[in-house]
Amino acid sequence: MSRPDGRLEPGQPLRGAISARAWNRAQDAADLVLGAGTGVEAGVGSTALKPYSWAFCQPSVTVARWGVLAITGVAITPTGESGGATASFEEMPVLTGGTPSATTTAWCVAVEPIESGKIGKVAVGGVVQCKVEVDKSDDKFVGCSSGGLKTGVKGEGLILYKESGTGSGKWALVRLGTTATTELDVITGVTLGSSGLVFTRETVYVIGKKSPSPSSLTVSTTACT
Predict the structure, then answer these.
(1) pLDDT grade for 44, boundaries at 50, 70 and 90
(2) Which pick of 8, 50, 100, 103 has the fewest CB atoms within 10 Å?
(3) Among candidates 132, 128, 111, 125, which has minimal Cα distance to 57?
(4) Domains, the chain, ranges and CATH?
(5) Is this structure's pTM higher than 0.70?
């Protein structure tokens, strides 16, 4: 009997015209055409579309499905133009992962359970579901905290949906790959009130720059006397 994914067991002929190895290679080619590796995977019995781009990852810790990993490097480092480690890197690059922290900015989401030292699939871009800690109900972004993901006013993931309420263990749908966002308090206006200068302050978010260096504004107190 054929396997549910359409492949044959070793030694099982297809009406005597094709070997199991040849049939399985044809199935592998079909998976590639259907987009395996770019977020479109062949499902069991049907084509299951996945809205994320995935890569292989070998974590140093065990991670559950939809858990988060800090991206720490690659399992095999290319060493030259061709051959050896470079050939392995070209054929199948594998990320390495670890426990995230509050300073982690490069991270991924496991789309299947992965044991420590084993290789599995992780989402590195696109839209993926995950569990997050909701800090404030109106947060629009998500980033790493100690051991997981936490919502905030900035982060590498844009929240498309999240469960209501605050606290940990909340389901969310996140778009990975959001440009780095920095929160800044800026003065948007100055007026002269009855008791002195009144500064209007507003919080703004700068996209694409981690360490903005705004120019300073000096107000002479002698000019107001």
Answers:
(1) very low
(2) 103
(3) 111
(4) 1-50 (no CATH), 52-178 (2.40.300), 182-212 (no CATH)
(5) no
